[in-house]
Amino acid sequence: MLRTLLGELPRQNEGLMQEAIENMVTALQKLQTHIEQNNDPTHDYRRAEIFTQGLISSLDELEQSHFAAAFFRKKVKAGYVDDMTLEEQADYARYVYFYKDGFIRLFSVLDKLGNMLNDLYDLHTAKVKPHFSYFTVIRQFHYLKLHPELENKLYQINESYRDPVSRLRKRRNTEIHLMSAEMQDDLWQLHQSLHGKVELEDLDQHLEDLKLGLDMACKTLSAAFEYTIQLWGEKGLQPS
């Protein structure tokens, strides 16, 4: 959608994005077939179907946010806020909007997946932490000693992206609970400057972190759904 609005061609899924979506679509097809054949009287599989459809949409929205942020970042040439033209200021504001939307969506995707895994595998994570996150779910797998193969895959992916995801989580928490992330950057720059001229934050580094966060989300979704599909093939659609 955003590509069309920005005059770009629609995305052609490839690489990690393609793999993640294909795994989710395969799971979705299996769920829909099961529902058609068994009527799903408890609505457990319908709930999993809705979760999966939501995750496909959420991953698509995350990728679009990263694309739009990168699109507008290319239009920002000045190194200082005070040196921007009015047009550049507008493009910078658009970059900030989509960058922030991106890192908020990243943790939304992960937490939605965490809720789905909690349901599918009967982890009862809410007993440990009422408002749990995806990362709590990984720890719950380990604590309960359930599905160690899946838990290990998710843990390894999490560890390999620990630094960029930690930076993004800190910015997300700042944005939601304290002040806007770019205002925090401005305050830091003012403390460093003798003349009160605000230098832009490292836009390229921030975008790289967001791209790595997107990659992490794709790998995480692929691993979770690939394992679940395999388990369904072995035991039928009763993963827990």
TrEMBL record:
Pfam families given in the database record: HEPN_Cthe2314
| Matching InterPro entries | HEPN_Cthe2314
**Domain Cthe-2314-like HEPN residues, every copy:** 51-228
Query: What name does this protein carry?
Result: Cthe_2314 family HEPN domain-containing protein
Please give the organism: Paenibacillus lacisoli
